[in-house]
Structure formats: structure tokens, C-alpha cells
């Protein structure tokens, strides 16, 4: 495809996306087709001869788009948001066009340096502790997801626990990872990948009201394990848990980790973005105790997946744990020690130029624009929570410090399951569920920049009406 | 940013990329600026108020582009290619615009199903063994890179070696991974991440002439380890090693793995793409022994990074090793068992809609178009190798079955290092190096669809002239 062919086809694809966004509100949020429906419409093998872009775009509209869950839909309130934005898409488009492989500084100096600067910009935007800035021993890097950030933190923690011998001798199964019963499944998955197994994870109980990790229980578990010859290697605290956005108390957890020399990773995948607003930084109190920290601009900061921002306080320790330097990657810049090679900060070797989308987003919105976006989400969630609170049939299940509301019909689980199914079957809105203290709970997470009071009110109207049918007479 | 604002800004970015591609040949392949030059030009913090797209594009052209290594440049012959193409960029653009999170089938049915079908299309295009098709117990998935594919293969192998208990109890340090001394560094990194440590990797010697793994040495190592109470868990064979594109002999390695019940992963990251051409499938002989296999469409198949295609013969075993199912991800489709949830096939939870770029590439080029691309690369490499062969000052260091030529000035390393530095300093071409049997060796890897006979001949002219200066009088 020549540059001129690309130009013409590129305009057509840009038009396709602009039209898709403009018509999103008219689409059902989710497909109602059964498994296999899309695959059945596709040829069983690739074409021998090439086809024009128009043919592909036709099928895109006809076969693919109707078979999607529309994450950018204003009625999408499921999971956590994974919103993108125009400037993010443009930054990603530039990245795709440049096709730069940023594994080493030398393979894309501007790719590496823009990333370092963007992570410093983000650290400033969130007012993160100074230890995470690249101007000192720390620094930030883009990971694909918080799962990978947690895995990397786990590996560094194991290396530290083994006195720097982990990378040669491997993992000792006496090491343990501590996190709350409400923590994300990626922590168990990271422990498993790192060779500790599910048995290597200690789930610490939470405060029944706040769903936040009990520092007392954490201390007790660490002390009991130490007494039994087990080695506490890592604590993962969560700022904004997946179920209910609970905030683990870092001011109490941090000192426990410091006392016992345990690596502390803070997972603020969803809620970290809120800290662009000074009044929403409460979750970061005590963050100066953390050895590493991450949040996902791809969740609530208008940056398309994948973009997890991960910081460490000691970059040297991270690189020591992960670096492998074969001859074919050696180069003068690396040998000089004057550059960052981000391949040593992550699992894969290769890397895209993801800093571009952050650069586009931060510049196009500015900090004030991002604050406005976050505040709007929080206000919409509060508006929805007010509706729930005012309706005696419902109860709020947990605090809603950010933009997620957890609620349920009072009483047994059955009607709640029924309610969720009925609400999602309308195709107008999409919610997901969780269990809080064993009870089936609905989650409404606001995040789309397209979601307005109208959409939240419509969601409530649908829920309220469906509840009438879901509750047994 | 409204859809209409995006439409206008999108045209401008498409123009920027088309112009960038059209003017690539006029740019130096690499930046000559020292570390820190780009960062020094950027503001130290993010803007408070938003800025227009035009301002960002101006800085993109002024600050970022000149600070890059231009991987799409027709004179880029370094590492392995990581070429993109117009249709790939368009597919990625659609993916960014849709902003679909494909972690579960339910969160993007078409995202999952198109991926399954595209991996089947690729399997057909490469004529992979039937065991890897989704129609049986196997199937394919997109990983970000071959590094991650190797890691996943390592984890499944460990789970199998532990009789299905790995995911609970963790890794046993008596397990060993076997690969050749010429294998990629990602195999050591995967073993380290999985908790085996560098000590858990046995590097098997290679045939001095072909640089391919010795099956005799592999058998001897496995037998010796077994006798010593060590458990051989995984063999990673390479089709197209990074240094020289050596092909490990699967027809001999496979039976050794089968005999001792060792998981066999085949890493064809670079060379796998060649198998779209029937006459270049020699490296896949014996692939029916493999438990898993991967290659990178993002290297030599005109698909932008990241896109590693990874297949397993037993998808159930893979999912068993990696799945974690928290309540907030439960859904009716998953419970039905009728769908694939690709989150269980990889390290991270989240996933982009990367099948779109494969769909765009496979349809726009067609199989014949892709064959033409591969054959042109092989022919250009052969053309360059002929030049080397005809010049008595030089020697070819290894066979060149694909599109990589390894060569050097006869004699000591010094002049070769000098030669590489002089060649790259011209800014017209970019090559990298390796060591083959300890000797400094230059690598010229053809891959860009923009590279023609003119560029290869120019590369040779530059090298030939620089050699005159690099050889001591």
C-alpha cells in the first residue's frame, strides 16, 4: 500500500470511526447473538488474492461491529471503564504509523525519552511521592496492564527477598505474597506465574464495613508466617478494589511492611486516575511507603488500552532482576550506562511507542480537562447513588468514593440476579455484578465521557422498572 | 473531542503519516543526538489547559520524529525487521476507535471469534499441523511477543511436569528448560520469571557449521539430568535463530521430547512467516511433535507490533494452568463452556482487538501478496550475499536460508566493529551485529516492503567503501 493509497483509505477509516462514535447511542450496548455467530459468517480460510479496503470496511460494519460489546457506549456501566478518546486514538495512530520498536533506548531514543517524561508528567499530575520521579533513583514505565505491573513487582520483590540471588537460583517456595480477600485476581495469577502457586498467596481479611485490608490482620499473618519459617516477600495493597473501590489503609500497612522489610506494591489500577483532582487524593495517603505503584490511564483517564503506568522507587533493583543482555542487543548507548532500556522494566522484549497517546491526551485535555472528566464521573455516580438511597427496595452495599456504585435489592440473591439479566437484556445499558460479603451485588461504574445525567437517569429508570418485575410478588 | 473534531484531526494525522512514509528515504535512519536531547526539549510538566492537535503535530515533527530510529526506513537492516503496512495501521486504527476490551468472549464476542478465525487462517497460510487448529483440541491466540509466548509455554510445561499441581503448589526448582546456545534471550528470561532462575536453563551445544541445536547433545543432557534426579520439563527449539536464522532439527528433537515426555515449544518468531511460501516450509518439518508454536507476524508479515501468533495443541491444559475466575468476571457464556476466554491464554487480563490488523493484512494482500513480499526479501538477501561472496575481503559466516545475511571482514574483530560504526554513521543504512562462534559478525536483515534492489546495492556500496577504511593498511 503506497502512502497515497494509505491516505485515501485512512480518511475512510477515520470517517468510519467518527460515524461509529456518533451512532453509538443508537446501538444496543451488547450483542445478543449466540457463541459462534460471527465466526460462522467468516470464510474458513484467507483469500488468495488481495481485496480492496472498501470490502473490508463493509464487512467490518456488517459482521464485526454488531457482534461487539460496545465499551465506549454511553450506556456501558460494566466492569471498570476502559475509555478511549479522540486524542488517544490519534496518538496510537501515530505510533502505528511510525512503527518504532522501543525495546532499547538506541532503537528509538525519542520513544524512550518521551515515555520517561510522560511518566514524570503523570507523577506530577497525581502528586505522587518524589521517590517515583526519574530525577532520582526511581522512575516510571508503561506496562500493558496492571496485571503485568503486579507481576513485575512480584519478581522484584522475590529478587530482593532472595538477597539478589533470585535471578540465578529461582524462587523459594517459602516466600509469601499478602493481599486482601478483595484484591484483584491478577495478584494470585502473578504469584502463580512467578512459581509461588496459589498456595503462596495469603489473603488478609478486610474490614466488613469498608472492605479495606485490616492492617492488624496483616501484621498477625506476617508474624505467624515468620515464626513458622515462611518468608514474607510482598504485600500488594489496593487503592480502589475491583468489587467496591475499597481503599486499603496505606498509612497503617506501610509501616508494617517497613518493619518487616517486605516489598510494598500499591495497585491503584482504577482509582489512581482520580488523583488528578486534589480533593480525590485521599487514597494515596501513605504512598511514600510503597516500593512500587501503578494505575491505568486506560481505565479512567481517557487513554485507550493498553496503558498501565507503573513506577518503582528503585529502578536499579528492577533492572537487575529482569535484565538479560545477549550480544545482538549490545550497543554503545547501553554500555555507557547513560540511558534507560525499557525492555529491562517488563516481561516482553519488544515495545510500542505508547507514550504518544499519553502525550496527546495530556496536551489535548490539559490537567484541567482531565479533572473535569473525573469530577463529572464522581458526580454522576453520586447522582445515581442518591436514586438508590431514596428507594426503599434497594440498599447501597459499600461506600462509593469514586465513580462506582455497588447496590442491590434488599433480600435474597435470586431477584438481584434476575434484575441484572433483565436490565442487560434491554440493550440500553450494561452493568456487571460482584459478590460483597457473599451477597450478589450490582455494580454501576461511570466512566465514558459520553455518559451524561440523561444516561445515568435512564439507567436508573430501567433498573427501577425491572426491579418491579424481578421482585417476587 | 467530538466525532467531528476527531474526523478533522484524524485526516491531519493520516496526512502526517502518509507524508512521513513518503519522506522516509530522505531521513537519516537513526538519530545522531546524544541521550537526553529529546527530553531536554520537552516541558517538565503537563499543561494545565488543553492545546490544539496542530500544536502537538508540530512538536511531533520537530521534536519526536528526528529523535527516532526509523524502523520502516528502506535502509533499516538491523535486528530483525518489525515492519508494518498501510492495512495493518488501518486495522489498528479501527481497534483503537472501537476501544473494545476482549478479555472475555462476553466482553467482545466478535473480538474473540475473529481472533480464533484469524489464527486458523494463519495456520492454513503456513500449513501448520492440524493439531493447532481450533476445530480440534488446539487453537491459536495473539500474544504481544514471542517472549510472552515462550513464557506461557514455559508455564504450561511446568504445570504438566508437576502433574497438574503447579498452579497450586508452585514451581519445583528441579525442573529444567533446554534450549540451544543460540536461542533467544527470552527463553532465559521466561525461565527466570517462572521461578527456575538462570540456573534452570540448560544451553545445548550447536552444530558448528549450521548453528542448529545438536539432538545428540540434547538427548545426552536430558539423560544425564534424569539420572541426577532433575526433571526435564521443556525444550524450546528455534526455527530461525536471532543471530543467524539457524533451524533446529525438529525431526530429531521431536522424538527425543516424545520419548522423555518433555513439552516441546517451537519458537519461529522471525522465520515462521516464510512458511506462507510452500518452498520455504523446510523449517517446519517435524512440527507435528510440538506442543506449542509461535511466530511473529509483526516481524516479517507486514503486521505492526504487537502481534505474535501462538498456538497450542491442547488448549484445555493451557487454560487449566492460567485461569483464575473471580466473581466479577463470571458470566453466562463462560459458565456454558461454549466460548473461548482469551484472558486465560495469556499473562495480562486485558486485551486489545488485535485480530483486526491481521484481518486487514490478510485480506488486503491476500496469500499471494504475502508470498511476493517474503520472496522479495529472500531474493534481496541472496543478492546481497552474492556481493559478499564475490569480495575476497569478506566471508559469509552462516547459511542464509531466509532474508538475513551474516558476514564479516576476514580476520580479527576490531576492523569489523570499526566497519559497523562507519556504516551506521552514514545515516543511509542501519545494520546491527552479533557474535558467531565468538567472532564479531555483521547482520543485514531485509524486511521492509520499501527496500528494493537499489537500497540493498547502496548498502553494499557503503559497506564496501567503509571496509577500505576499516581494514588497517
TrEMBL record, chains A, B:
SUPFAM superfamilies: PLP-dependent transferases. The keyword Nucleotide-binding does not apply. Belongs to the group II decarboxylase family. Pfam families: Pyridoxal_deC. This is Aromatic-L-amino-acid decarboxylase. It comes from the Bacteria. Residues 28-52 are annotated as: Disordered. The keyword Lyase applies. It comes from Micromonospora qiuiae.
